[in-house]
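Field reference: sequence -> structure
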Amino acid sequence: MAPKKIVIDCDPGIDDALAITLAHGSPALDILGITTVGGNVSLAHTTANALRLREFLGFPGVPVTAGAAGAMVRSAIEAAHVHGETGLGEAVLPEPTLPLADGHACDFIIDTLRAQPGEVSLVAIGPLTNIALAVLKEPRIVDWVAEFTILGGTFTRGNRTPAAEFNIAADPEAAAVVFGAGWTVTQIGLDVSTTAQATGPIVERMRALGRLGSELLIPCATFYGMVTASEGPAIHDACALAYLADPSLIEFRPAWVDVETAGRFTSGMTVVDFELQGRTPNAKVGTAIDVERFWDLAMDAYGRVAASL
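Structure field:
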């Protein structure tokens, strides 16, 4: 079976780095391009990190295209206190030598989907600004895409605020455009991703991967939070790429999802209605992940990358 063609829209970011590494190492996925957005850190840093990851991991032929620096209508927010000043925790990768692609991320997304209608899956693991700009500029992408997946939102509690997850809270207006675009959004949120934790035994499996473990995976994962034998930092974004590689990893329920843009305390909240109230679902929302199988898939992918370094 041919690998699934994907475009990754991201804001690297610790968990973005682990997600990109998983995608590169998975035989089930073929990365056609990476687009960047301001989010976890500034666009300058997220783009530089994507360029560093491309060369360190070894996929020089994949274009990296920069996109929006901040939200569509409100001030940018960042999470450098979580990801480190430059975004990759304690990982220090060599400076990139290959150039950034010309143009804007939203145009790369449009052009790629137009060129291969029904063949390319789009996955967004950062704020949804680039995706919203692409939808507004060319609404037909909702028909051209094979599948659209996000890492974002929650139907329980947020991490940016009690109500809102960071990627949605960073640009609620963009998220509202995306959920209202007329496609089915595959939403993998905190309810799923917080269970995929890098515990002590997982970090030891990373340590066995040589340079990849010591120079990237562990300096990223352990910067995120304390690691014990039974608990550790959640590696959120990697869940979305693992799902694309093996959709059976995650359980879903159909839902109608609205995005709160005006609430004083709830701005950025994904309001998830599993009851639907007679509406056709605009999303399928992740409710659980097989954590053991997730880590087996991730470690298999990481092992393939490690063997090539």
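Note: The mean pLDDT is 97.
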